[in-house]
UniProtKB/TrEMBL annotation:
Keywords: Membrane, Transmembrane, Transmembrane helix. The chain crosses the membrane at residues 139-160, 294-320, 379-401. This is Uncharacterized protein. The keyword Transmembrane applies.
Amino acid sequence: MALAFLQCEAGTGGVDLEDRFKALEMMLTTEMEMAVQPLRDRVQVLEEKLGLAENLSETDGLSVSVQVTVASPKNMHDVISMKEEATDKSRPSYLKVRSVDSQDVDAVTEDDMQVTFNRDIWTYFALVGLGRIGSWDACFTFILALVSLAMQAAFVMILMSEFFLERPFEEKVELARIWRTSVAHDSRHMDLAQTSLTSRVCRGDGALIVSTTQAELVEEINKFLGLGLDDFEPSSFSPGTMLSVLCILLWCMRVYKDLRRMGLVMEAWSWIPRSDYTIMNENFGFTELSENRFYGFGSILFVCFAMDCLLLVAGIRLLASTTSISSLILDAVALQAILDIDDFMFHALAPLRARLLIQGLEPMQVKISQIRSQVESGLNFCLLASALVLPYLFMLAPLGLSMQAVKYELCGGTQEFVVAYNQDIQMTYALRTQSERGIELLPSEVAVEEFKHSSEALPRYMVFSATSQAFDTDQVRTMAEEASTFPICFETQVLQETGRVYRDPVAMSLIEPRFQSMVARFGRNATTCEEMQDLCYLPEARMLRYLCGATCGCASAGTSTWYKVARQGCSESCLKEAEAETACTDVAATSEGWRSFWMNYVPVVSSFFGQNLAQANMLTMLNQTVQAMLSEGCPRLLVNDTDFVTSVKWCEGFPDLFRPVAFLCPETCGCKASLSGFCPSNCLSDAVHGSTNSSNA
């Protein structure tokens, strides 16, 4: 009965069920064909390219169904299998299994690359009107975008302006030349150690109070080029140049990163189909774009791209013009902060709803072929080479040459001299100076060092002036004025036990600071005049002769008359004591005073005039005169009565340099026969007696 029932059911409804099965089969077959066809075409193209195609024919009475399994191109193998199935339900058999290398697939296919939108404030303009965001959030986001653009534009304008960048280093060459010829060798800027301003600047003297700009410039050049104090040619390794190249390369890579990212976004944006309306898929990705949205967001990307290019150029100019090594890295970091203004705005101030919309955007797709990748690699290589070579050739190398020129103008040539111009006689005079200040302190520096922490009321190395007017007078008082100030010979009357005011406190308060200052001047650790006796005939020993008149011969008769004048330190009181002891007779040719005077003639006169007479053409004649004086004694003054160099008469003396030789040869100089003012006072009585006898006769 069941069979009959089934047959009845089949007889009555079998026709409809069979029709339904056929319709379902046709629908499934069509869908399968549509799904498999792209894979079949791809396999066919692949086999043709690889030479693997085979003639496959369908047998009569057989229907062919193809089962294709294609692995991802990223896998090592793609497996393609085709399965033939007979209509009579015969056992299926695999017609073909083929393994293909992934490199072969990449050679003929293009890979899709996901490109995410930039997480910055500008991406919001791609979503205007698409997401649920409040009107105030949208307005504030727009304001942030304008502020970001304005800030970057302002930075670009400032960085590109001539007011921000340092003056071209080429201009400093002429300024250095002017400084060197007008200020650097001015005697007014020479320090107490007789060091010229040029030497102090080029040696990096940290105690400078003038020309500090030039000193900093020299130090900056030395650090940048890796130069020593006396070097003008850099070595193969220049620290500043190398660091500049690295900072510029770092900056370029940072900008290239943004430019490449924006370039990919622009490319992916251009591949999205356009229509009258913008259509989003279920993953919040763009399926189609309206023309307005496409060109609007594309224009914004172009503006951002152009702004980054301007920042790239401005940053390179800034880094290439920075001559301070310590500022290079700081400038590079500051430039990166300018480039990240968009990110700062997005993460710090962007509305949360806008951030959620931007973060939820589905990445776009860009097709990347092997040829395109190789072309891009070549372009990147060119950009890398340009970032290394172009700034060095056109900016850093000329900067290094300009730095060398500036240092040569500042410090090249002879540094150890100063000049002063005499307006009255219209002549420039020069003085050779020390190359650098010594380690030892100067007398004035010793005085300050000793007194600044002293608890004593009276200083040891200096004398305080009573008033400001006295201070001004003391600064310019000459040695002749100093020697005539106190009517006392210090050594004979104060320092010696036979003196009238031996160790008087008031007199000692005058002597002690002067003696200690003089001792510090010569670097001695002396406590008595006898310990300094060997220095008495030095031209600069004026204070020594002033304080130690007896030891240096100022108060002694019969000594050499060199420096026995007030202008060279001998006080009037000491000279009067010597005059009182002088006999009115000529000294012998072998006496110590006579021989010392003529043996020291050439060096003393050379030192006084600043000219080495030993190299003069007149040296032969001068030596002949000296030898004649040494051999013949005082009578030779009757033959050579005038000094050829100073044009003064020997007997009358020279107030700036030596006492009248009449104190050694009073008889030859006629002191007994006349009342000449240059003669010793002891000869005046004889001269008066002689003149009286002549008148009586």
